[in-house]
Amino acid sequence: MLTMIRRALALVPCLAVFAGGMPAFAQNEVPTFNAFATVVAKGTIVRAAEKQAMVVGTLAGPFFIETDEGPQQAGSVACAVSARADQASLRLTASGACSFTAHDGATAWGDWECAGYQLVGCRGTFKLAGGTARLAGATGESTIIWRPTAHEFKKQLDGATLDNATGILLWRDFKLTGK
Length: 179
What we know:
The chain has one helix at 2-19, and strands at 32-49, 52-67, 70-86, 91-102, 107-117, 121-131, 139-155, 161-178. It has one helix and eight strands. Helices cover 10% and strands 67% of the residues.
């Protein structure tokens, strides 16, 4: 029970950063947490080479901080994505930028990149680079994992294909280093 209370108290600064209300964290303390977002992906697929396709689009949905008592919604996230899929090797590389919006309107943003496989997703690095209001000056980094799931393809008159998908974005060992 005491361990659970200590873990919950350790997450309070992390929740405060994204959900609002309290100082971000004590001086010399570097909070680490896990977070995720259930996202809807919308994009356009364009052939980039004989056996390669590019997807350019967005990933957006509610953002949650993981706690010992379950997920706590902290706001929303919208991410731009540019992904290249090699149909011969099934390799996938992607990069983009994300903007987080807390319930009180404060925002934070950062860049990400990852590598993996089609139909599985990818793993890489996310770097938080700043924010507005109470998140001004927020910096940090984490591992980012993108796991797309169900896809819906729609062929357009110009030959491009629209891709609507659902999935999850995960931020693992997110360390807030500045604020």
